[in-house]
Amino acid sequence: MTSHAMTLPGEGRVAEPGTTDCRGHRCFTVVGPALRGDTIAAWHATLKGGAEAMDIYLATYNAQFAHKHGASCAFRYLPPSIHVACKESYETLQAESELANRARFEFNR
Amino acid sequence: MALLRAPVPLGYGHASKEAHSIAAPLLTGAALALAGVVAAADKDKKIFYWPGVSLLMLVATSMALLASIQLHHYSRQFSYSRQDIHDWHDLDDSPADEALLTQLYAWQGDDYGKWARNNDRAVHCFNAGTVLLGLGVVTVLIPPDGGQQAPCRWAAAGLVLLCTVVEVAWTLAIYRKTTQLRRERGSVLSAIAKPRENA
Fold first, then answer.
1. CB of A23 within 8 Å of any CB in chain B?
2. B46 CA to chain A: closest CA distance, Å?
């Protein structure tokens, strides 16, 4: 059925450009596309501002996705630009998550 | 376990393989055969209205479809399931194998991204190829000035053109529909998935 649906009228895409599946534990959310202004450089600059700056950044750029992540998703507090940039490297996504956690922890200490 | 990634719907990979490894080669052969007919036609008899345009369309069709076949073959190596991992590696769900499984599952997700990116390129080539084939057939069917069976050829050309327009509209609708389906199902699954106790 799927085969006919693809071959006869044209084939559908696997993924929407600029999006990715969240790689968090038991999380199936499609994240992205990132809003204008949400970039890797902007996020990394925000990390230097500590928890408050991160929360403002996430409220601005991640509000539409944060509530859609799975309950145990470790990556729900990463902005869409990071998810999309790391879609072919789980290791990098984990590193970004640790970087964010460290930035939040060190600022609070 | 979202370390692993899967297409939506799950049968997409099998269907994609059929489109690119069965339909695309057949359509490529048909386009090249038709191009051969146009190229070999007697110039004095004026069988085709735009033989040059027809040849261009049909050769472009072949190139697009060949590209889709090659991109599909390249991308296919990155598409495998959790079951494939367990078939190829002697692993079970014991704590001793947990780190190995986590790494292999993470690589599956990474490789899935490569498959999705290259398979989408193959999809665009396939869809472009089928539309070009329709347009190529239209240019072949248009009768030359004073040609025989002109009404029938015009009717056939119109029918193929209509089907090609429908194909384009349908393809664009499918592009939107599949991405919506992925988002909707992802949100539903994330909402109902509960964390495992041993996670």
1. yes
2. 33
Please give the tally of structural domains in chain A.
Answer: 1
Region for A56 from its dihedrals, namely left if φ exceeds 0, alpha if ψ lies in -120 to 50, beta otherwise: alpha
Q: Is residue A53 in some structural domain?
A: yes
Judged by CB atoms within 8 Å, which residues 58-97 of A form the interface with B?
68-73, 87-91
> Under an 8 A CB cutoff, do A3 and B183 touch?
no
DSSP for B130-194, please give it. Answer: HHHHHHHHHHHHSPPTT-TTHHHHHHHHHHHHHHHHHHHHHHHHHHHHHHHHHHHHHHHHHHH--
List pLDDT tens digits, range B97-123.
888 998 999 999 999 999 999 999 999
Domain span at residue A49 reads 17-108
CB contact under 8 A, B114 and A88: yes
Asked if B194's CB is within 8 angstroms of A10's CB, the reply is: no
Residue B2 and residue A68: Cβ atoms within 8 Å?
A: no
Query: What's the Cα-to-Cα distance from B136 to each of B44, B72, B165, rounded to whole Å?
Result: 22, 24, 13
**B43 Cα to chain A: minimum distance (Å):** 35
Contact of B120 with chain A, judged by CB distance below 8 Å, is answered with yes
Residues in chain B within 8 Å Cβ distance of A19: 179
Q: Looking at residue A31, what DSSP letter applies?
A: E
How many C-beta neighbours within 10 Å does residue B151 have? 8
- How is chain B split into domains, by residue range? 12-191
Angle (nearest 5°) at CA B178 between A92 and B127? 100
Q: Is residue A12 part of a domain?
A: no
pTM here is 0.84
Low-confidence ranges of chain B (pLDDT < 70): 1-2, 196-199
Is A56 a residue whose pLDDT tops 90?
yes
Residue B157, both tokens: 């050309």
The two three-digit tokens of residue B38, written as one number: 């146009």
What pLDDT does residue B199 have? Answer: 46
Contact B130 A91 (CB under 8 A): no
